[in-house]
Predict the 3D structure of the following.
Amino acid sequence: MSSVNEAEFVDAISASHSESIESATILRSKRVSVVVKLEAILEVAEALRDEYGFKTPSAAGGVDYNREDRMQMIYYLFNPDSKITLTYRVDLPRDDPSLPTLTGIWEAMSFHEREAHEMFGIEFEGHSNMIPLLITPDWRGGYPLRKDFKGEAPAE
Amino acid sequence: MSEPTITPDIMRISWGPQHPMSGQTRILLDLDGEKIHKITADLGFTHRGMEKILENRTFLKGIIPIERMAMIDTPNIGIGYVMATEEVLGIEVPERANWIRSLVCEMSRISSHLYAFGLQVEATGFFPAVFLWTTADRVLLLDLLEELTGARFSYNFFLPGGVMKDLPEGFEDRVIEIVHYLRRRFKDYWTAMIENVLFEIRCNDVGILTPENAIRLGACGPVVRGSGQPIDVRRDEPYAAYADLDFDVITEPACDSMARTKVRFREIGESLKMMEQIANEIPGGPIRTRFPLFTRSKPGEAYSRVETARGEMGIHMFTNVGMNPYRVKINSPSLRHMYIFERLCELDRMTMADVPVVVNSLDVWYLDADR
Amino acid sequence: MVEESVELKRALDWVPGSGAVYSIVDYVAGWARKYSIWPMHFVTGCCGPEFMQTSGVEYDMERLGILPFASVRQCDCIMVIGVVSRKMAIRVKYLYEQMGEPKWVVSVGACPTGKGPFFDSYGAVPVDEYVPVDIYIPGCPPRPEAMIHGMMLLQDMIKNEKRIGVKRE
């Protein structure tokens, strides 16, 4: 069922994966958001790609909510038939953020997961090529996009 | 970088940041004779930390650094940020401002496509003759935009709530003159380069990206339209004045580098059509709604997607109570296309001579990829 | 680069009248060098399109003798055009060391001068922490007239340099 509109999609996924997802909401026209529980992230991702038609990976990034002691990892997916953009979110504990990699499902998330690792310190289990993407390899200055980053200089 | 595996057959070449045609990146090519065995991209040579900088700027001041993300195509990026700000703060834009925004965006799109075309022809081995022709034609567009906005490259012309200034006297007539002139030049370029036997030999059947691979690997913009898929943000989610303008979404069925070049080139024709419509039919009215200088935002988020010359760009803005955004995530098209470039040598046989053709047909701008 | 205030010892000082000969030689050498500054093709950041537009048709920089050239060993100037990140700054230093004397560095744009609009960035660095800079051309991006003016200032600097036969101790 790839060519659906936002309301049908939200109803369908809430019905079929109700124990795995925390919420599925419509933000506005052509924008849907699904927050999934960490244990079920891979199976819901596969369902999104195969059953609901979100085949195009757009990007992935994180948000640091340091006051609430959590980090959120967001994957941006696109459905080329119904042109809906989905933000697929998962909440992680801030002191040990780690989740399985989604490169097995959407291959092109590889670059984005490397960047999220060097910017936030999120570990991706099973990623085949976790080397820094944008920062110099000898950077010892911390994780730049965290809220407690003080602009520390690198190790040279 | 990972250590090269030294075998007698594979040689690793570093196509480095100092090279006339590499752009601001280092690409490691593993060669087996002339055939490319593996491509590794080393990005980050222009990493400025744009997302961290935007957390330290107010909503109005943030327009200035974000436009420097891709200097060749700045209005299309500025409008993404400004639209996200307007959605988060709940500001309406008057109709005339939307039409002026579309006009500036389309002129910049033509300028960027001409530049990319000139670079591709230069990279394919023809001397910079065509590149100098394109600089001559872009001078007209840059002069018009300088008359309207005051700057040649980074205009900072869009504000949350509208645009900064109204069109000067007689601007619409000058726009129509330039449209007629560029249409004649368009035919010259087409016969000189696109129907040129040598250019066809270099670009046909090189870097083939099938439609399934294009969708699976995350292509967008002219790359996915060169594989036959009609995906264009201006048609799927019309913003600014695109809902009222009449244009076609250009696709090409051939899926090779020549198809991507042709898509970009024919899009110039569509942009010229849109410029003519805007100059003839622009409505009157105010050009901005009042945006108070010190604005406190409420908690919320907004994701805006725009079609830049390189592809689809997304700006996801999270706000908390404050004068700065809490987090801005920028999804750039060039980073997605760099992944496709790394995989193309496995999907299709590529030789050393095909590398500049392919990388310029994907139109990657490394400042966009590194942010 | 040789400073003006230091008393120059030149190789043929013991020959009477050598000062007059040296002044003619310096004049000819300065004239030849200033009209053929070959910068290295090294666009590091976003001022690149403005540089290419300046080398283009309307404001032609090649009539001043400025021809961007590919190989670093055959150039005499590095024009650092645009924002310099840490990764790139190390390469600027390597390339500066590989260039043969006489050599100059021009920093084009507000970013290599002092980080420009990204003044609080963790990623960008000012380039004069890595290489000694001769001319700074501010602007974001600098107008073509500003770039040409900066290169003409460099030409004046080169004209007044004294290098032939200078003894280094």
In short: The interface with chain B takes residues 27, 29-31, 55-59, 61, 63-64, 74, 76, 80, 83, 85, 87, 106-108, 110-112, 131-137, 144-145, 149 of chain A (CB under 8 Å).
